[in-house]
Specification:
The protein contains nine helices and five strands. The chain is α/β, with parallel strands linked by helices. It folds into two domains: about 80 residues, no CATH class; about 120 residues, Rossmann fold (3-Layer(aba) Sandwich). Strands 2-1-3-4-5 form a five-stranded parallel β-sheet, with helices on both faces. The radius of gyration is 20 Å and the shape is elongated. The two termini are about 25 Å apart. The mean pLDDT is about 90.
C-alpha cells in the first residue's frame, strides 16, 4: 500500500473544504487523530492553517511509521469518502489484550483445545496477553462484551477452521474498525475457506506446535510483539 498516496488523498480531502482549513475549527484531521489516539495541537495562540498543518504532519508521521495495513486502508477510505471517521475509539483505553476468535464448542469441534494451546503459547511468547471470550467472567450482554473487547484489543487472531460464522463476523468487524487481524486455519480445512477472504495471507497449521511456531513468526514479522 503506497503510504504517500494515502497521505496525499487525505490531504486533498481536508483541503477541499476551504472554510474548515481557513478558520479555527476541528474537522476531519482532528477527528482522525482522535480516533487513533494521537494527541492533536490545540488552536490556542496559533493560526488555523498552522494548526491544521501541524496536525496533518502528525497524521503523516503515523501513516509513515506506525499505522498497520488495516489502519492505512481505513485512512484511505475516509479520504475517498468510502467511510466516515468512526465514532468509536479502539485505541484509547486499550486493554492491550489479543482477542482470539475461534470455534469454542468442544462437543462440535475437535480443534478447540489445539487452537487454544497453540495461540495462547504463541501470544504469550511474543509478550502479549491472549483473551478468550468464553473464558472471561462478566455480567454483560455477550454480544456487547464481544464488541467492547474487539474495540479495545491490540490485535485479533482469527482461526477459520470449520468455517465458524462467528469468526467471520468478529474478524470482519475488527478489520472494519482498523484492527490488525491475523488469519489462521488448519491445513486440511483451508480448501473450505470462503473465496472472499482466501486471497488474504493465512497461517496454515497442522497441529498445536506448528500453529504456535508459525503464529510467533507472523506476530513478530507484523511488529506486534509486546515490550
Amino acid at each position: 500500500m503506497n503510504k504517500e498516496q494515502i497521505y496525499v488523498a487525505f490531504r486533498k480531502k481536508a483541503e477541499s473544504d476551504d472554510h474548515y482549513f481557513t478558520f479555527g475549527k476541528t474537522g476531519i484531521i482532528e477527528e482522525t487523530l482522535a480516533y487513533f489516539g494521537i494527541p492533536m495541537t490545540s488552536f490556542i495562540a496559533f493560526s488555523s492553517k498552522q494548526i491544521h498543518e501541524t496536525n496533518l504532519k502528525k497524521l503523516y508521521d503515523f501513516i509513515k511509521t506506525t499505522a498497520s495495513n488495516e489502519q492505512l486502508a481505513l485512512i484511505y477510505e475516509i479520504a475517498t469518502d468510502q467511510k466516515p471517521v468512526p465514532e468509536m475509539n479502539p485505541i484509547l483505553n486499550s486493554s492491550g489484550n489479543v482477542f482470539v476468535s475461534m470455534p469454542m464448542n468442544k462437543e462440535k469441534y475437535d480443534c478447540v483445545e489445539t487452537i487454544r494451546s497453540g495461540t495462547e503459547k504463541a501470544i504469550i511468547h511474543t509478550k502479549n496477553t491472549p483473551y478468550y471470550l468464553d473464558l472471561d467472567t462478566h455480567n454483560s450482554n455477550i454480544f456487547d462484551k464481544m464488541l467492547a473487547e474487539i474495540q479495545s484489543c491490540k490485535f485479533l487472531v482469527a482461526d477459520f477452521t470449520y468455517q465458524n460464522a462467528g469468526v467471520y463476523y468478529e474478524a470482519g468487524y475488527a478489520k472494519g474498525i482498523g484492527k490488525t487481524v491475523i488469519h489462521t486455519c488448519r491445513k486440511d480445512e483451508f480448501s473450505n475457506i470462503h473465496f472472499d477472504i482466501k486471497q488474504i495471507q493465512f497461517v496454515i497449521w497442522k497441529d498445536a506446535g506448528d500453529l504456535e511456531q508459525k503464529l510467533i513468526e507472523q506476530i513478530q514479522k507484523s511488529k506486534l510483539s509486546g515490550q
